[in-house]
Design a protein that fits this description.
Blueprint (H helix, E strand, L loop, with lengths): L1 H19 L10 H27 L3 H26 L2 H16 L8 H4 L9 H7 L7 E4 L3 E4 H13 L1 H5 L13 H18 L1 H10 L3 H17 L15
Antiparallel strand pairs: 1-2
Helix pairs in contact: 1-7, 2-9, 3-4, 3-6, 3-9, 6-7, 6-11
């Protein structure tokens, strides 16, 4: 089944590469709409997400760190097939080794002994894989709740669900190596990952909002630079939006 999914993705990648090879990157697809969506997202954050993030930050550090380790460990599963697609077998070893060690010795990933062993997997997704193949970003726009993206990365977001083993056993409800789950498991982990990011960057986002003449443009610049860093495996940042605090 995994081989079939890889074939599907390979076909989709070919279509995207061919369809974007003659299209010049556009800075904005529809800026006015994106700015309206951005305002909605900020209002949603102010009313719902930020208060939850502040409550999350009040949890004891062991719980917060353990939760972050757990979601990061599951996220490593998406990196494994993308390491293969990119031909990055050094990082493949880091990803597989980290997941195996943290899932077993690290008690399902709540602990992170793999890092102490020198295993540091990069986060990889289909959008990054496309970028490594030379596919341009395409136009930039903002999605409701999900936030900033590009044509390439929004396609990658959909394709991720075909190559991610965790998505395979949850939203697709298929058994893999004796493990299975449900769509609720998938979206719970994704939601917790987003919450962990929001809580970690609460002060950074406040400072950015306070000091930016145009918050929309500032976040756009940060997002695009972060994605570029990840595609070239820059050592500047390996965390999501890692340069947000710069």
């Amino acid at each position: 089944m995994f081989k079939k999914n890889l074939k599907k993705i390979a076909s989709l990648l070919t279509v995207v590469i061919l369809s974007t090879s003659s299209v010049h990157a556009v800075e904005e697809c529809f800026e006015n709409t994106s700015r309206a969506v951005f305002k909605f997202n900020m209002a949603f954050d102010d009313a719902i997400f930020e208060p939850i993030a502040k409550g999350y930050n009040k949890l004891p550090d062991p719980i917060k760190i353990g939760t972050s380790n757990f979601t990061s460990n599951i996220g490593t599963l998406l990196s494994i097939p993308n390491n293969i697609l990119q031909g990055n077998f050094n990082q493949l070893g880091h990803s597989v080794g980290s997941f195996v060690v943290n899932t077993s010795v690290g008690i399902l990933g709540f602990l992170n002994p793999a890092e102490k062993m020198g295993l540091k997997p990069h986060k990889e997704d289909v959008g990054q894989t496309l970028g490594s193949y030379g596919v341009g970003t395409g136009c930039y726009f903002v999605l409701p709740i999900l936030g900033p993206t590009t044509l390439r990365d929004s396609f990658g977001l959909i394709a991720d669900s075909f190559v991610d083993p965790f998505a395979h056993i949850t939203i697709r409800e298929r058994e893999l190596l004796g493990a299975s789950g449900s769509a609720l498991d998938y979206f719970s982990v994704k939601g917790t990952t987003a919450l962990d990011f929001r809580a970690d960057n609460d002060k950074n986002l406040k400072n950015l909002e306070k000091n930016s003449l145009d918050l929309y443009s500032s976040l756009k610049s940060i997002y695009l630079q972060d994605r570029e860093n990840k595609i070239i495996n820059s050592t500047d940042t390996q965390d999501d939006w890692g340069n947000l605090d710069n």
